Hints:
By secondary structure, the protein is mainly alpha-helical. The protein has one domain (10-73). The chain has two helices and no strands. Helix 1 (10-30) runs antiparallel to helix 2. The chain is elongated and about 60 Å long. The N and C termini lie far apart (44 Å). The relative contact order is 0.11.
Amino acid sequence: xxxxxxxxxxxxxxxxPAIYILLGAGSIFLVSTRLAVTSGLMLILIxxxxxVQRRNYRSESQAINRHVxxxxxS
Length: 74
């Protein structure tokens, strides 16, 4: 399978962090064991980190694109 890549459909890809957060919250509130709470907290943390990472990447990417366009117009 060298050279082939797999991509998730965009709606699924974009909603994964929210799904992780919801699953984490559900795990914490619906299953009251240490393992469930720990897993839930980890899912919430990971979902939040993914959201922050995507936001940072997209804002940096937009800033770079604006800079490149400004230099191209000069």
